[in-house]
Amino acid sequence: MDATFDGAVVRADERARERFYDSRGYGSPVDGALELAPVEAAHLLFRGDLDSVVDGRPDADGEELDFRGFLATTAVSEVAFSVYKDLRDRGFYLAPESGGDATTSDAETFAVFPRGSGPWDDQVAYRVRPVSERADVSAADLLALADADGETTGVLGVVDEESELTYLELSRPAITGSSFHDIPDGVIGDLLADRVLVTDPPTALHERAFYGQRMDDGSPHLQLSLVEAAYLAGLGTLDVDGGQEALAERGRAVEGERFDRRLRAYSALRTAGVVPKTGFKFGADFRTYADVTSVEELGHSELLVRVLAPGTVFSPIDLALDVRLAHGVRKLMVYALTGADAGIEWLSVARLTP
Amino acid sequence: MDATFDGAVVRADERARERFYDSRGYGSPVDGALELAPVEAAHLLFRGDLDSVVDGRPDADGEELDFRGFLATTAVSEVAFSVYKDLRDRGFYLAPESGGDATTSDAETFAVFPRGSGPWDDQVAYRVRPVSERADVSAADLLALADADGETTGVLGVVDEESELTYLELSRPAITGSSFHDIPDGVIGDLLADRVLVTDPPTALHERAFYGQRMDDGSPHLQLSLVEAAYLAGLGTLDVDGGQEALAERGRAVEGERFDRRLRAYSALRTAGVVPKTGFKFGADFRTYADVTSVEELGHSELLVRVLAPGTVFSPIDLALDVRLAHGVRKLMVYALTGADAGIEWLSVARLTP
Fold first, then answer.
1. Interface subset of B 168-227, CB within 8 angstroms of A
2. Strand B303-308 to strand B332-338: parallel, antiparallel, or no bridges (unpaired)?
3. Distance of alpha carbon A11 from alpha carbon B163, whole angstroms
4. What pLDDT digit, counting tens, does each position of A73-128 carry?
5. CA separation, residue A11 to residues A8, A26, A29, A30, A32 (Å)
């Protein structure tokens, strides 16, 4: 069986098309023959389905390349190959969505067809972007991948330095809850260094709406975090010397612009009927409760929220850390990407087993 | 009972000494009377053991300060107060080790005496540094705290923005293992973009010493990570075009100096008989196995190792994230603090319930 690599694709004859495309979903048929992306050819070489590929590049002398030789041409990145191979091993047919060009192969995506389907069908189950653990991924790229339309799920396929695969499912979660409570205005608070002390809080403030933290069981004193206090001052519910601006200034003194971002995310969550409380013990900005009727009947918190600037660039290992922890405590990891004066993009990341 | 605040300490009479120091370990006796650090006085005010403190500062007019009024003087940070109160609630006697000066109160430490002991005894169970979740902590400070001598444990007491406490125990762990294996020299590897492919590896390399990863069950091909390959090339075990330097260069191309730090930590672990494998799925650089005899009889990995520059400044929330995750997977979180040309300081951080 003749297969020739021209530097971009591997071309093979009609018999190859029948054997590899028609029955097993490799490549694309072109004029009755077969065109394979380098990653597809590499997989056929690895499996021994192809013995070798002829190096038909202008400056090559028609050498026969085996698996090792073909990989050494760097026509296909080992990262893309690892993901391709793993998904094939799991029983999927898949196709590179770009040309599979070596120089951009880390940025290409694979269209993964539902089990039992192939490139001749219309449906795509997963759109998977292979990425090395050592490569950074921008928030914008992840949001674009999360936008996979219809029934397609956007997935980051991370290959770690020992060639193990981790699949991360990307979505844009709906942020909605039913936690709405009436709190009487005129709550008086003292701004301390890092929080606000309310010595005579109305019952609804903590017991129903879950603002603040009692200083002691049975103590009348309630401590509000700066972000809670700034939100309540903005609503006109809380009176503090200097108002919301004094609270925000105190927040910015330590956190800078991050405080404004956190306040923005906090406000959006509260506005959506979701109660954010500190996520410190989980290493996140907030954990959230969608349906709070009273503190006594508090359920399980559903989300861990980390607030980040929209220009954030993630290292895959940071995503792995967040997602692993969230999974371990049965919560969904959500990033709130927000600038100082813009809307919030919500992005969730979760482990996936395709 | 008369107690006067002079801006630095609160002085009270002999009756106060009997009642607060002799029987409950507050303050220090001075000439038969009692000197209280602000945080101690605040706690007595909070409990109602003291009704008020006279403001005896030069520019004050002798006002009587209650708990709320005393906190408002900012003589004591609410962070230090939260930690002091929590440890008292847990049944400990404790004493500030610095003067308890308000301007440095976040940097002061508490000597916490063993249960049933007090300041009149010699033993210290924990040396606790109170810190706000929003304050950064340098690696150097954590190492100094980990050096608490003898039977004293160094502890970071983190107060999150909702005034909840998290205690982190700091230690310098011993890094030792028994994983030593003979591997024949002359292993041949091909440097790909991001890893090394060994097509004909000796059995001991993976099956006994746990280097690399089989490409497939039963496949002869072994993939080595760049850091594994660089270490083996340095030993003279692995032959790759360009040797260790070519591998390190490839590593640096993406990670910069971080690759050298990781290689240094990797080498130190292997030299100590400990096998490091990627910690990617746990968001760490390495997970480690102390006693590997063969891959088939691999036990549980004991440590998660993150490699950092010695000048690293931690945000407490990052520590909380790492420690929570490590705890969840029954491993100890260890930081390897290492520069390009220096030794490694090992620092472990774990959750503690005093």
1. 190, 192-195, 197, 199, 212-213, 215, 223, 225-227
2. parallel
3. 66
4. 888 888 999 999 999 999 999 999 864 444 444 468 999 999 999 999 989 999 99
5. 10, 12, 10, 9, 11
Q: Which residue has the tokens 């602000």?
A: B38
Comparing alpha-carbon positions, the chain B residue that sits nearest to A251 is: B134
> How is the beta sheet containing B94-96 ordered, strand by strand?
B94-96, B110-112, B126-132, B153-159, B165-171, B344-352, B332-338, B303-308, B286-289, B275-278
* Catalytic annotation present for B300: yes
The answer to whether A283 contacts B134, with C-beta atoms less than 8 Å apart, is no
Distance CA A216, CA A269 (A): 27
Contact B37, B27 (CB under 8 A): yes
Please say whether the dihedral angle defined by the alpha carbons of residues A177, A180, A186 and A188, taken in this order, is positive or negative. Answer: negative
**Average pLDDT value for chain A:** 92
Residue A84, token pair as written in the block = 């391709």
Q: What tokens were used for A198?
A: 């309310």
Report the percent of chain A where pLDDT is more than 90. Answer: 83
Closest CA to A248 of A198, A191, A210, A199: A191
How far apart are the C-alpha atoms of B58 and A67, rounded to whole Å? 85
Q: Which amino acid is at B167?
A: Y
pTM for this prediction: 0.91
Q: How far is A140 from chain B (nearest CA, A)?
A: 21
Phi, psi of B273 (to 5 degrees): 80, 20
Q: Is B46 helix (H, G, I), strand (E, B) or coil?
A: helix
| Cβ atoms B190, B240 nearer than 8 A | yes
What are φ and ψ of residue B347, in 5° steps? -135, 125
Tokens representing residue B222 in the block:
């072994």
Residues forming a β-bridge with B170: B154, B349
CB contact under 8 A, A223 and B133: no
Is the separation of the CB atoms in A77 and A102 below 8 Å? yes
Give the ipTM. 0.88
DSSP code, position B22: I
Above 90 in pLDDT, residue A265? yes
